[in-house]
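Our consortium's second objective concerns turning raw sequence data into structural hypotheses that experimental partners can test. To show how far this objective has progressed, the report includes one record in full. It was chosen at random from the queue rather than selected for favorable results. The single chain below, 126 residues long, was entered without modification.
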Amino acid sequence: MTYKLFFKLALAAAVIVISYLVFSKPNYSQSFAHMDKVGHFGSFFSLAILTHLAFKPRWFTMVGILACYAILIEVIQSHLPYRSASMGDVAADLAGIAAFFIISWLRHKYKASIRRKAASAKESDS
């Protein structure tokens, strides 16, 4: 199994599990206030990672698709008698996506600084 195929399958599984969780009747108690927001944040952070690893899309494509999924979730939840729509959930979803990009950017900057230091050390040895 190739690297990209593995992450495509993992992404499909994640979308199925997340969709089930957000559309099914909740049968759990919240351990703390706003636990659902933490779940939304973590879910969309994970979806952003898996989408990136599976497809390496342009940032605006990934944000657009994941934002549409976040909004679709809330639209569907607004029609379910045992669920309610929340812009706070969409905000938590978008924050999870943003966290992925911030961490990716920081990782890129860190790796670039390591490469610069290695190149500088190699030049000084010459």
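The partners drew two points from this record. The mean pLDDT is 94. The helical segments are 3-23, 35-55, 59-78, 87-125. Both points have been shared with the crystallography group to help prioritize constructs.
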